[in-house]
Amino acid sequence: MIRFTRVAKTYASGVPAIEDVTFHLTRGEFAFLTGPSGAGKSTVLKLSYVEERPSSGEVRLLGQSSVLLTPRKVPTLRRRLGIVFQDFRLLPDRTAAENVAFALEVTGASAATIAPKVLRVLDKVGLQAKADARPHELSGGEQQRVAIARALVNDPLLILADEPTGNLDERSTRGVFELLQQINAGGTTVLMATHDMQLVRSSGLRTLEMQRGRLVFDSGAGRAGTPAAVTEDVG
Amino acid sequence: MNLAVREGLLSFRRAPTLSALSVTTIAFSLFAFGLFGLVALNLRQALDQVGDRVEIRGFIAEGTAPEATSVALEDIQQFPEVAGVTLVTQAQALERARRELGEFEDVFEPGLLPASIEVRLREGARSPAAVKAVATRLAAYDFIDDIRYGEEWVAKLYRLRTIATAVGLALGLTFALVSMIIIGSTIRMAVLARAKEIQIMRLVGATDGFIRAPFLIEGFVKGVLGGLVALALTGATFLAIGRFVIQASFFGPLLALTGLAAGGALGVLASAVAVGRHLREVR
């Protein structure tokens, strides 16, 4: 589903953001990406949704290699992903339903197929009743549900979530996490960056821990497709 | 495409102030361009009118057989530079002189003034060199006594035209360039105001072409609206000048339509540049 092989990324400033990161996420997995701020979590996610390209190494995503991927192919690849952010990234002047529909419209879907799909995913995230509300009329947890509905509406194979609960209270955090787990139970792979260690520990799910740009711990290491070498880095 | 049109038009409702500002900016830069165009148009027409009066007159020697002149007339008519040839007989010359010049009022002697051939030149064949060439050919007929065409005057008029064209072109290009820069900045503001939307579009898998389309439509509509306002402003100025200062000509419908189309094209071009730049920057 997603495989990082000795990936390094150095931004224009010259400071390396991540170095020698190797891991593999198989279909249907749910993994946390943890670590303090600046550890490189967001860079790993940006490389995963091809917002950035690796400086060295290879990222393989849904069978496509970062080495061979042309910019023209990026949009079609992203349509098979769902991306969720801490700050929701909803369009303030559109309703919840319009925000979700937006992700379908850009794929060129017909109006007739959009409406039922939007209703279905809004129902799935428990927000069908608020389809016509604009983001400012919704709570943080509800806005994040709209964002998740938008990520879901294209039936993605992989959901990449960058601190999706970072702006939410405990109750909403729980709700969003449970929603992501439900989605994962349906077969969608989920990679979720968070520094909510309580959530990570209580879940017992696979955890990738970043520190200063390096992957220092992978609780799933040694499983099929995960290089054992990574475990040597555990400090 | 339907969606692109809808999104392009919705931007006016979503950001009315910014849209109005864009249209106003486009309108004023096109208005300045339009005023300049109006001056250029009228100057050109005035010069053309003067240019129509460039003619060569060849005086016919006394006693020339009418057959010889009529053959020559047909001949001259065939010159590529010539728009028309007229024979002015001695009687006609006197008649004209009596009409136009007071001193001839009491003169009735038909042989007093010589007959002549008047040659009018086509547009494009009124340069001093062309006029001189025709004059020389005309002088080659034995029955032509003398040739007059105001050599100095033709040269001056030609120089004036050349200067007017060069200045017009330079000013016009400058105006067009300034308009494009101003319109480009305005559209760029509109693009930046929607940077978040563009970012989200990319994240959910929109192609660059898909992102660009609504902006191009928006730019086109703004350009055409700006062009309409500019045309109205130019028209109003023209009417005011016509009433209080001087009678002038206005753009014909074709020129006015061209102006509108240019506004639309300018809007599309400025949008394409602004969005393209933004898309490259955020890549």
End-to-end separation of chain B: 24 Å
- Taking strands numbered 1, 2, ... along the chain, how are they ordered across the largest sheet of chain A? 6-7-8-3-9-10
Secondary-structure element order of chain A, N to C: EEEHEEHEHHHEHEHEE
What does the main sheet of chain A amount to?
6 strands, mixed
Largest sheet: number of strands, sense, barrel closure of chain B = 4 strands, antiparallel
Could you give the count of β-strands of chain A? 10
Q: Helical percent range of chain B?
A: over 70%
- How are the strands ordered across the major sheet of chain B? 2-3-1-4
Overall average residue pLDDT of chain B:
83
Unreliable stretches of chain A: 224-235
The rough form of chain B would be described as elongated
Oligomeric state of shown chains: heterodimer
Order of helices and strands of chain B: HHEHEHEHEHHHH
Rg of chain A, nearest Å: 18 Å
Average pLDDT of chain A works out at: 90
The chain pair with the largest interface is: A-B, 22 and 15 residues
Radius of gyration of chain B: 30 Å
Strand content of chain B: 5-15%
Tally the beta strands of chain B: 4
Which secondary-structure class do the elements of chain A indicate? alpha/beta
